[in-house]
Description:
The chain is built from three helices and five strands; from the N terminus they run αααβββββ. It has helices at residues 3-26, 31-35, 43-48, and strands at 57-70, 73-81, 98-103, 117-132, 135-150. A hairpin with a 2-residue loop joins β1 (57-70) and β2 (73-81). By secondary structure, the protein is of the alpha+beta class. 20% of the residues lie in helices and 36% in strands. Residues 12-26 have low confidence and may be disordered.
Amino acid sequence: MNRKSARCLAILFLAGGIAVIVMACAAGISSQARSQVTFTQDFDQFRSEAADLIGETVMFGGRIIEIHNRDGVSELTVLQLPLDTRQRPQAGDQSMGRFLLVTEQFLDPALYARGAMVTAVGRLTAVESRLIDQMAYDYPKIEATEIKRWAPDQLWGGPRIRFGVGVGTSF
């Protein structure tokens, strides 16, 4: 391999590495939204102290239970799930409760459907008591500043790099 080819190959790998890093960083909650978070404890503590935390900015995520759009507001009921290091909800049954997520942005029920995973940053505005079947439940109500809906293929934590060699033809 001559020097010119080696240099072109090095530039190609560098550009590819930068593209991978940029895509990985851009995939989740923005650094601007993350920097606004003022409450960083776990959801169990948040839920138990929610009445005293009105006005705090939080980041939580989980699985959508239901969505309602009315009067210019979209409201998600979310089953909280722990977040991984990339702020993605971890699938499983490790929930510490539920929360309400509201936004003036229209959230299409076809995209924000039951079972979809979300992560959000927002401000705690209230605690609302509602029924789950016959039981009263106090929901922390969070006014979202940023919501990330995760596509199923974005939740898998493994590397996404693929290499292939071959000749393609079409007829």
